Amino acid sequence: MKIIVITGPSATGKTGLALQYAEKYNGELVNFDSRQIYKKLDIITGKDKGIISNFKFQISNSIWLYDLVDPKEYFSSFDYVKQAITIIKDIIVRKKVPILVGGTYLYLYHLLYKIETENIPPNNDLREKLNGKVVSILQQKLKKIDQKLFESLNESDIQNPQRLIRKIEIASFYKKKGAKVPVKMKFLFSDFFKDKDIEFIGLAFKNRGDILKAIKIRVDKRLKEGAIDEVKKLLDEGYGEHDPGMKTIGYQQIIQYLIGEMTKQQAIDEWTRKEFQYTKRQLTFMKKDPHISWRVI
After folding, report:
1. CA distance 70 to 95
2. How many CA within 13 A on the CB side of residue 75?
3. What pLDDT shows up at residue 58?
4. For residue 38, which phi and psi values (nearest 5 degrees)?
5. 100: which strand partners?
6. CB atoms within 10 A of CB 24
7. What number is the average pLDDT over the span 267-285?
8. 3-7 and 97-101 as β-strands: parallel, antiparallel, unpaired?
9. CA dihedral 14, 20, 21, 24 (to 10 degrees)
């Protein structure tokens, strides 16, 4: 076995299972959660530091792409892939097992599969027309051109006008050819191993009701752990709602509460709703990957 991938929505026990596999197979963890990439975003992103602290291996040498960048820094899936490839190949060369764990399927997809949109040239006329448009307009335009492509995006992409414009550019390119954006999958690491050498594990709840219940419990737990104080501290340190890391679900809603745009309950309800929507989008995208073997928890 050359590589293990563990994915699924929040609160399914991905980190715990990944640590068990690391001990069993002499592995090292490689995070692909776009929210846990950021430093200082601990409570709301659900970093399982309690579980990780019990990890028997040397933490600094066994867990990668975790607490990596400052919340003010923009970090794309391209940035992720560039760093992850180097780390994974190094783990393999050292004859250990890379164990990829996280819930941001876009990162995983771009890491493991060759994307056939990278060589699409910029459409400057289209960009000029779209620059300055509000996010909601860009979202609707992308949905109209390619609903499936829109559903594949993570929350950060959906709220980022530059990334939305690029997706519209890609979707428009294929629309002119009478086609949808291709979803053909070809392993990026084919020079190291074949797809049969990858074990894909997807952890999922039995039904949507269980997902919503787990999210409500998780949000309540994070609030009790000090989510609001975490956001206050970040704001005091000079971080703002428009910083890339702070655009994460939970932080945005609590900021709105702290500046008086929402009541506390409205912020909690909106946080829960956004988490639920994000989880459904991720699952929709993941379910299209035939390599993932699902386990119902």
Report:
1. 31
2. 27
3. 47
4. -80, 140
5. 5, 30
6. 11
7. 91
8. parallel
9. 180
Q: 182: burial class by Cβ within 10 Å (0-12, 13-18, 19+)?
A: exposed
Contacts of residue 253, Cβ cutoff 8 Å, sequence gap at least 6: 262, 267, 268, 270, 271, 274
Amino acid identity at 46? G
Task: Tell me: pLDDT of 255 over 50.
Answer: yes
pLDDT digits (tens, 9 = 90+) for 40-72: 999 999 886 555 555 544 444 588 998 999 999
Q: Is the pTM of this model over 0.70?
A: yes
What average pLDDT does this structure show over 242-250? 94
Interhelix angle 251-258/264-286, nearest 10 degrees? 160
The angle, 0 to 180 degrees and rounded to 10, between the axes of the packed helices 264-286 and 105-112 is 30
Measure the CA–CA gap between 46 and 36, rounded to whole angstroms.
8
Tell me what the mean pLDDT of segment 200-207 comes to. 91
